[in-house]
Amino acid sequence: MAHIPTGLVSHSRKVCNFYKRMIRHLESCCPDLAEFRYEAVLMRAEFDKNKDIKDLRCAKALLGEGEAKLRAGMHWNYLKFPESPGGCAYQRDHPPLDYILDYWDEMEKARYPKYFALREKRKKEYEEFYRKQYGEPTTHSGH
Questions:
Q1: Does the predicted TM-score (pTM) go above 0.85?
Q2: CB–CB of 26/43 below 8 Å?
Q3: What SS3 class is residue 107?
Q4: DSSP 4
Q5: Contact yes or no for 68/18 (Cβ under 8 A)
Q6: Is 47 exposed, middle or buried (0-12, 13-18, 19+ CB in 10 A)?
Q7: What is the pLDDT of residues 83-92, one digit of tens each?
Q8: What is the CB neighbour count within 10 angstroms for residue 26?
Q9: Cβ distance 78 to 25 under 8 Å?
Q10: What angle do CA 33, 38, 44 make, to 5 degrees?
Q11: What 8-state DSSP symbol labels residue 58?
């Protein structure tokens, strides 16, 4: 499943996200730490120069221009963290599904009596909620 942000995003949040992407772009482009820091300071000065703009239309236009410039000059090997969307380890480890615990042996369940007692109680509550919400399940006979 793709990472999809939900909700409204303020202009200041968009600028912060854009700044972070620009930093990642610089990290990708500048293998030397000293060169990266120099470029990052120059970029931060550009952001600080425009931080007091009161006209939101002008600010949105500047952000749009910056986004377009970033897209046009995006590094071919853009730095992504492994666990982030698009990273090499994103969603690599899938947590085991809950129903697997139903197949545990009784001796295994006996080691965790409180957990399995509460789990059975929650399962019954969920079944009651489901029946109340959606009614009794109907069986369809095949034709």
A1: no
A2: yes
A3: helix
A4: -
A5: no
A6: middle
A7: 888 888 888 8
A8: 19
A9: yes
A10: 120
A11: H
